[in-house]
Amino acid sequence: MRKLIAEKLCIPWNEIHLQRTSKGKPFLANNVLGIYSNYSFNVSHQGDYAVLAAEPELQVGIDIMKTNLPGSSSIPNFFHIMKRQFTETEWGVIKSMSNEWMQLDMFHRHWALKESFLKAIGVGIGFNLQRIEFNVSPLQLEIGKVYKETKMLLDGDEEEEWTFEETRLDDHHHIAVALGKQEGFVQKHSDSDVCSMEPNPPQFTLLTFEDLVASGIPVAPEDSAYWDNFCCKQESPVKQNSLSRQDCL
After folding, report:
1. Distance (Å) of CA 204 to CA 119, 201, 212
2. For residue 64, which of 3, 111, 133, 125 has the smallest C-alpha distance?
3. What average pLDDT score do residues 106-133 get?
4. How do beta strands 132-135 and 146-147 pair?
5. Angle at 51 between CA 101 and CA 106, to 5 degrees
6. What is the pLDDT of residues 216-243, one digit of tens each?
7. Is residue 163 within 8 Å of 105, Cβ to Cβ?
8. In Å, how far from its chain's centre is CA 191?
9. Higher pLDDT residue, 176 or 218?
10. Percent of the chain with pLDDT over 70
């Protein structure tokens, strides 16, 4: 987030003030004037990636989901547990896929869409997910391509002021980006439909850790003990019940 803000808004790393709303959504607390006064951004991480999306005039929410088998539960049992999270129409699409793995993949695609909307409007887990329903299109997403065809219904009515951009990073990772009007903010564009500021939806750029910190400025004094503790952590932790405990040396 600091790299984005520093490059787009020209605020030095160590002068960026980030805060969270009462529901936990991060926002820029600096007083920014001009076209970036309503700058909105959001982050998500799961699986092998952390992702970020930002817009100068729109609410934005992003979610990434990695398709994984549901732990010790079977896929049908997992779907039964999660039954209340989707509408009958959504479950119909999910279960119409030709095998259980493809059904699970479609489940995670729907979940990413719902999470992206909730994160965009900044609400917590108390929101009734059956109030929102997604008509996904197309059913198959090509890796690396950005799609904007999926539509959302809120309380049964199609939400024309919201756009959802979907991307499949690889065979396992789905990304959904929700874009909608800022509350109390008048769009400067004449188009009635919400759209990204660019004529074509931007694709994601893969950045390494080195890319992220190359232009960084320290925001706190160096703490060697914190770094040593961090280095003791496993890079890819496994479930504790299958791991013999070992002390860091």
Report:
1. 19, 10, 14
2. 111
3. 92
4. unpaired
5. 20
6. 888 888 888 988 898 998 876 655 433 3
7. no
8. 26
9. 176
10. 86
Question: Would you tell me how many other CB atoms lie within 10 Å of the CB of residue 16?
Answer: 19
Tokens encoding 102 = 């493809």
* Cα–Cα dist 196/68, whole Å: 31
Euclidean distance between the first and the last CA atom of the chain, given in angstroms as a whole number = 33
CA 171/CA 164 separation, integer angstroms: 20
Short-list 21, 50, 38, 85, CA closest to 179: 38
45 close to 64: Cβ distance less than 8 angstroms: yes
pLDDT of amino acid 104: 97
Residues 6+ apart with CB under 8 A from 70: 77, 78, 104
- Which string of DSSP letters, residue by residue, matches 197-242? SSSSPPPP----HHHHHTT---SS---HHHHHHHHTS-SS---GGG
Tell me the C-alpha distance between 77 and 74, whole Å. 5
Residue type, 230: F
CB neighbours (10 Å) of residue 62?
23
For strands 40-46 and 26-28, give the pairing.
unpaired
pLDDT at 189: 39
Alpha-helical (H) ranges within 47-174 are 75-81, 88-95, 100-121
Residue 93: which residues within 8 A CB-CB, separation 6 or more?
106, 110, 136, 139
Angle at 16 between CA 28 and CA 121, to 5 degrees: 15
Sequence-ordered alpha helix ranges (H) in the chain: 2-9, 75-81, 88-95, 100-121, 209-213, 224-231
